[in-house]
Amino acid sequence: MYYTSINHFLAVHEADLVDIMVRVQERVGGHYAQMMAEERRAGAAGDMQFAISVWRTPQIVRDEARTIAEQTVAAGVDLTDLTRLVDMLQAELQAFITERLMEQPDLAAEILRLMRYSSNNYRSGVTEVKIDTAIRRISPP
Q1: Is the CB of residue 114 less than 8 Å from the CB of residue 89?
Q2: Backbone phi, psi, residue 29, to 5°
Q3: Helices 80-100 and 105-138 meet at what angle, rounded to 10?
Q4: Second label for 92, Cα 20 to 30 Å away, from 51, 57, 81, 119?
Q5: Long-range contacts of 15-21 (CB under 8 A, 24+ apart)
């Protein structure tokens, strides 16, 4: 299939991308392993829709990542789940995108660049919260 744009590729493959997110969440384990299958799928769909919106309109996601990470900490979830998810997801998506866009390497390169950019910003935001949380834990009141 020939894709006319990043948006076209993402629209055609949104369900595939959600499936990849579900599989990665299952492999990550942690709090994802405690979710019911329906809950995990709904969460994966929301997470992937967020990722797709970032790829469609490149933006810095560090602030959103901080907010997500702060909510995750407040819910008692280990932030390592989030960083492990983004690392594993990036590898899975790279393989998927490269395979699907073998005939359109420039489009693949652009999507992968956006994905790496947003993943790095997301990871940085989560790491900032991890550091802030650790500092608060060891700082005197």
Answers
A1: no
A2: 75, -135
A3: 180
A4: 57
A5: 16/96, 17/48, 17/51, 17/52, 17/93, 17/96, 18/44, 18/45, 18/48, 20/89, 20/92, 20/93, 20/96, 21/45, 21/47, 21/48, 21/89
Retrieve residue 50's tokens.
Answer: 């967020």
Which tens digits make up the pLDDT trace of 78-114? 999 999 999 999 999 999 999 999 999 999 999 999 9
Give tens-digit pLDDT for 31-84.
999 999 999 999 999 999 988 988 887 666 778 888 888 998 999 889 999 999
Provide the CA 62 distance to its chain's centre, in angstroms.
Answer: 12
Structure tokens at 106: 């420039």
